[in-house]
Amino acid sequence: MKDLARLRTAIKESVELALNQQIQMELTASSKYLAMAGWCDRMGYDYSAGFFYKQSEEERKHGMKLFHYLCDQGATAYSPEIPAVNQEYDSLRSVFEAVLEQEIAVTDSINRIIAICRRENDFATEELLKWYVKEQMEEEYIARRCLDLIDQIPADQVYYLDKKLSSVTYEDNVFE
Amino acid sequence: MTSNIPVTYQEVFKTDKGVVYQCDATHRLILEFWDTHTQFSARDFTHFRRMVETVDIRQMALSTAAEHDVEILALPRSERCYVLTLCEIVHLRELLSGARLMLELNSMLRECGCTVAE
Predict the structure, then answer these.
(1) Which domain holds residue B91?
(2) Which residues of chain B are modeled with pLDDT < 70?
(3) One GO BP annotation here (chain A) (predicted)?
(4) Helices assigned H by DSSP within chain A
(5) Which of B22, B46, B100 best probes binding to A when mutated, by most A CB atoms within 10 angstroms?
(6) Is A136 annotated as a binding residue?
């Protein structure tokens, strides 16, 4: 008897479900960052707003990368429902605390999917997800560094803090 | 239910209420459930199985509202639909879950270089 599912795609159902959940997570993150950008814009944190607009675009690209991968492999990618996201924050610090929590959740999720790939012997998807592992290491670093800067820069230097936060990058990626 | 079965059909899983066949010639999975006969691609079969698995049977069992007496499931790429009672959904789940298990077993055997006797 032919293996019809395997003829259609190399991706197992458990991996397909996990990747679709990850697409939803990435696009929800994009929506959250857009809300953060809007809040920063309203509060006059123009540099941070720019930073979050860019992050929102990046998260969407992360989701689309998985979406295209599923389609290219013959699996089914679903356009996800995006839940309502928080639009208001107490402070710039609370925004970046939410960023760190979000990035930690994404890292944990990526790690869980890699574990599923290993269980299913899906080495191609694992190879794709290695890119996300590196990306998450950078994202978590940036969020932590921003929180450090908020602690280090005096509260009355708001303009300088805003400008400095938007310039944080991870230049020395040890994986590259 | 099982009379006049084409020779290309191979039984995947069977219960009292229905049977799932696979046709290697057309790459279709065929669901016979009570008096219905439906052909699916592998993708649509998985999609339909997930639809059946995600029906909230707890709500159907506990709710007194008429709208929860039956569940309407639209078949992928078809104008037909199933209108199922709680019992029918349970029977259909049993059939589709059994078929899924057998298809996964077939897949595992092929990965090991074995084939199911035909």
Answers:
(1) 9-110
(2) 1-3, 116-118
(3) intracellular iron ion homeostasis
(4) 4-8, 13-43, 46-72, 92-119, 123-152, 158-166
(5) B46
(6) yes
